Amino acid sequence: AAGRPFAAVDLGASSGRVMLGYAGGGELSLREVYRFLNEPVRIGGTLHWDILALYRGVVEGLREAGRATGGRLAGVGVDSWAVDYGLLDATGALLGNPVHYRDGRTEGMAERVGERLAPDELYAATGLQHLPFNTVFQLAAAQGSPQLAAAQRLLLIPDLIAYWLTGEAGTEVTNASTTQLLDPRTRDWSERVAKAVGVDLSLFAPLRQPGDPAGHLLPEVLAETGLTGPVPVTAVGSHDTASAVVGVPADGERFAYIATGTWSLAGVELTAPVLTEESRRANFTNELGVDGTVRYLRNIMGLWLLQECLREWAAAGDPQELGPLLAAAARATPLRSVVDAGDPEFIAPGGMPERIAAACRRTGQPEPRDPAETARCVLDSLALAHRAAVADARRLSGLAVNTVHIVGGGAHNELLCQLTADACGLPVVAGPAEAAALGNILVQARAAGAVRGGLGALRSLLRATQPLRHHEPSGDRTAWDRAAARLTGGGKD
Ligand code: ADP
Ligand code: LRH
């Protein structure tokens, strides 16, 4: 093969994986060498990430990657979910387990921060949509804790993993943009926001750009993984969604993307942030992307809704298999009932089938009667939320979108992709499902000189090498208008 071997460590909220990619000489291939569940742990009333189990999964995955390549890797890159962090003491030791963004500790924190900096000023300065778990609100919740008092360093999750692999600390900028402490115009920290909300910016390691060198695997990591050094680690779009957007196989600029996994992140790629009051009210975010881009998008609950139902049914002794369940959902009555998949009421874990049923009752719609109807309600609701986000992104950015790309695990879900095409009234291109890993590998490979060019060139390599599925819009679009009206009490959506 012409390509050189790169490993992508991609930690999602539902699973972590180490993917081996060969890139260069016109080649781009990817295969999964190791996947492990990411199961949070509740202790003493606080929901934590099992960060050491995740690190072990990373090491085992790198060993597997080395097994496939005779111990040689041209590079490693790490991406993960956003906003969360670990704190280190003066010796570099981890202070406590990182807290999960779905933990309840941030309740009331937006109000507390709002007393110091009004929501409209915070938006104008950071461009970040209001999500209760943004890092600023987590830090407000941690204020006064002995851990924060002892902390000398704060590392976002992918930077923490990279630190353990290399001994070098940095703060990769795409993920830093999810802290709500960064100004998307300067792509640098906002001293003003940090001061106003009482965050000490010296906790953060220096900013890094995607493509920057991030050190080499430590001798102890080489020994544990059986890899032959030196193995460079490269900063990638360390926010998984930033890497996933690199991995969107778009032709040209007029596309919307939906990265669908645990979350659905739906929006467009821009060259400058949109910081208007209208944008704030529409709850659109300006996260930073690779190569100076802005990811202008909205968070939608995503397949979390279904994951939580599956977990609940299994715990109640009624385990459902995803394939047959989706087949039954495809046969269920379309748009029988829908919920607002953007509603933060669905963020916390637990009791999801009942919470979905309660939301249907509240809006005067029939409750789902079985798992198939619940799954159909979730998928119809996601498609409806995708449609609203794509329409708002077009309107607020002025970009004339003609195609919707669905990447992430949800790209496997043909029903969801077709419903999204139907709801948006636009053609949907589905795949790759592992867009984040591909984006991670492409940015490393480019830094190593194995591939060349801007995002357009990287995306044409994706189109030439990755299998994609096409969904044309079908059905009656007004049915979606009527369903949306049920959620807004008869108003327009
Ligand atoms: P994350 O990165 O947030 O952990 P993923 O991008 O891995 O999430 O997406 C996981 C979701 O993708 C699952 O919850 C599931 O709904 C969906 N998915 C994965 N594989 C399939 C499949 N073969 N068919 C249908 N859906 C799938
Ligand atoms: C998706 C994701 C998303 C964030 C959320 C916390 O994995 O990174 O972009 O909003 O996790």
Automatic annotation (TrEMBL):
Carbohydrate kinase FGGY N-terminal domain residues: 8-247
Record-listed E.C. numbers: 2.7.1.-
InterPro entries referenced in this protein's UniProt entry, alphabetically: ATPase_NBD, FGGY_C, FGGY_Carb_Kinase, FGGY_N, Rhamnulokinase
Record Gene3D superfamilies: 3.30.420.40
Carbohydrate kinase FGGY C-terminal domain: residues covered: 256-448
One of the Pfam families matching this protein, by short name: FGGY_N
Keyword terms: ATP-binding, Carbohydrate metabolism, Kinase, Nucleotide-binding, Rhamnose metabolism, Transferase, Xylose metabolism
GO MF term (any one): transferase activity
Family affiliation: Belongs to the FGGY kinase family.
Name of this chain's protein: Rhamnulokinase family protein
Record organism: Streptomyces litchfieldiae
Taxonomic lineage from the root: Bacteria, Bacillati, Actinomycetota, Actinomycetes, Kitasatosporales
